[in-house]
Write a structure and sequence with these properties.
By secondary structure, the chain is mostly helical. The chain contains seven helices and three strands; from the N terminus they run H-H-H-E-H-H-E-E-H-H. A hairpin with a 6-residue loop joins strand 2 and strand 3. It is elongated and about 65 Å long.
Length: 184
């Protein structure tokens, strides 16, 4: 980038974005959403990094941009990015002609995240069914594990239908794509 970047001129804790946005209000949103995700069980720094990327118009930032926007150390960014890439919520890409990595949210992040859970649920269901047989399905522990396996089986079927219904619903929404323009 040439000249002073939005990150350098933005108030402390602000996420870069369009000039007509209130940077402090955006920063408050990022922290509030990150707090909600943390309460739901996600790691705190990963929640903050994810929320910052979600609030960025390009859904893409460098480690330095994330550290500046969130006022956290590069090590904290690295740990959060490692977690987010491990759970397939964020991808790494190299800037052309640069050694700097950019971290980008995957397109259709929520759909992709929930759809990928299908594989996890399949493994859990398989393991739980085996565990129920091992313990004996008529023992208290075996029955509890069998019920858990049945719940995951049910959840998978429902999740598949839900994702199909979401795709149909999404087609009816009059929303921008969420993808940056080619010249952005």
């Amino acid at each position: 980038m040439s000249g002073e970047s939005v990150e350098e001129s933005a108030p402390q804790g602000a996420v870069r974005g369009r000039d007509d946005r209130d940077a402090e209000a955006v920063a408050r949103f990022v922290e509030r959403f990150a707090s909600e995700m943390t309460e739901a069980g996600m790691q705190r720094m990963a929640s903050r990094v994810f929320a910052a990327l979600l609030a960025d118009d390009d859904a893409s930032m460098t480690s330095a941009e994330l550290a500046l926007a969130l006022q956290i150390s590069p090590a904290a960014v690295s740990g959060a990015i490692n977690y987010l890439t491990q759970v397939s919520m964020v991808g790494r890409e190299r800037e052309p002609g640069s050694r700097r990595d950019r971290y980008r949210l995957h397109n259709e992040i929520w759909y992709t995240t929930f759809a990928s859970r299908d594989q996890v649920l399949t493994r859990w269901e398989r393991t739980l069914k085996e565990g129920a047989r091992t313990l004996g399905e008529h023992t208290p522990a075996g029955a509890r594990i069998a019920e858990t396996a049945a719940f995951f089986e049910f959840l998978q079927v429902e999740l598949e239908g839900l994702m199909d219904r979401w795709e149909e619903r999404r087609k009816t929404l009059d929303l921008p794509t969420g993808r940056p323009a080619a010249n952005a």
